[in-house]
């Protein structure tokens, strides 16, 4: 039996909100007027500051035309580098080890094209069977480009229970046939945090390079990529970082690799002062900026300026502390209010292992999600049986968590979900 850390009352939730030192950030966001948003792990909400910096970039375009690249509010030519600097504290890297560019999948392609250098019998890539499909598609296609069959050359570590990965199993698969390891920082379904420091140490001890997909951890938990010696990482900025739909992603390359020629080269990877020499020989930047390809998508970068300012003020350590407290609170309420209703909490309980969301498993999950939405609670569904709920430290309140659990309790007690089909929608 787990302990109940909290009183299951609305008064207690309100007290927690009053004691919350990050509560002032809530008013910076546009919250949906009639619903409780628990899906910030898929698409973060718009903040007023992100809106402001986007509109400032539109002003620059309107007033300066091409002059916006070098003048105006945000000097577009340097914006990717500036945002890299602003992102660096979120991943624990030096400012020049991070660049905001591309998208998650494109950045993975770039990094594999750069760091996967099969040699002798070291020709395989190690990943896992629980990772996000786009990562697997990218790895399969990179192997094919090298003339290898993904069936034999992409090794996917198995999960023992369909939820979690064991570091021992991953380490055991780091054989002398592995050239590169690509793993998630946090698993997108169960929310398990992998021990990145340990895995990096073990990979390096075997002469293997290692990179991480940080989509489900950036903006939710702190990282120490430089200190751990992680070779590279990549992530999106539209989930916990609140950069907006399709926001430009980010990548990190450890400085020991600076100077490595980009696998997918383009003119925005140039040293800044050489770029407009227009030579046909690329002189790559001596920073993570070398792994940019073409012209940055300014209007999809601009909201990040405001958003990352909020992170700088709130502090990722404070965000993590509150996020853990909120997910603990949510789990306690679920157990207290919904015992014997067929729910299983499928995420790690341990604070060192739990990411930013709760994964609630149930046979009827698809239609329970539909019923939640009808009742003004926005979760997300992952087939076949998972409801993900993410209270976001910057904008979710404890009272909302309490209300969301009461709504779910009501749906279950009244069997309201039965009026929907238990199937996922096109976008889940
Ligand atoms: C969201 C997510 C992606 C999405 O990739 P895009 O290229 O941004 O569409 C990839 N990997 C993981 C783990 C994700 O959570």
TrEMBL record:
Its EC number is 3.7.1.3. GO terms for biological process: anthranilate metabolic process; L-kynurenine catabolic process; L-tryptophan catabolic process to kynurenine; NAD+ biosynthetic process; quinolinate biosynthetic process. The modification N6-(pyridoxal phosphate)lysine is found at residue 239. It holds the Pfam family KYNU_C. GO terms for molecular function: kynureninase activity; pyridoxal phosphate binding. The keyword Hydrolase applies. It comes from the Bacteria. The keyword Protein biosynthesis does not apply. GO terms for cellular component: cytoplasm. Pathway: Cofactor biosynthesis; NAD(+) biosynthesis; quinolinate from L-kynurenine: step 2/3; Amino-acid degradation; L-kynurenine degradation; L-alanine and anthranilate from L-kynurenine: step 1/1. Keywords: Hydrolase, Pyridine nucleotide biosynthesis, Pyridoxal phosphate. Its cofactor is pyridoxal 5'-phosphate. It catalyses: L-kynurenine + H2O = anthranilate + L-alanine + H(+); 3-hydroxy-L-kynurenine + H2O = 3-hydroxyanthranilate + L-alanine + H(+). Signal peptide: none annotated. It is an enzyme of class 3 (hydrolase). Pyridoxal 5'-phosphate binds at residues 104-105, 132-135, 213, 216, 238, 267, 295. Catalyzes the cleavage of L-kynurenine (L-Kyn) and L-3-hydroxykynurenine (L-3OHKyn) into anthranilic acid (AA) and 3-hydroxyanthranilic acid (3-OHAA), respectively. Belongs to the kynureninase family. Homodimer. This is Kynureninase. The gene is kynU.
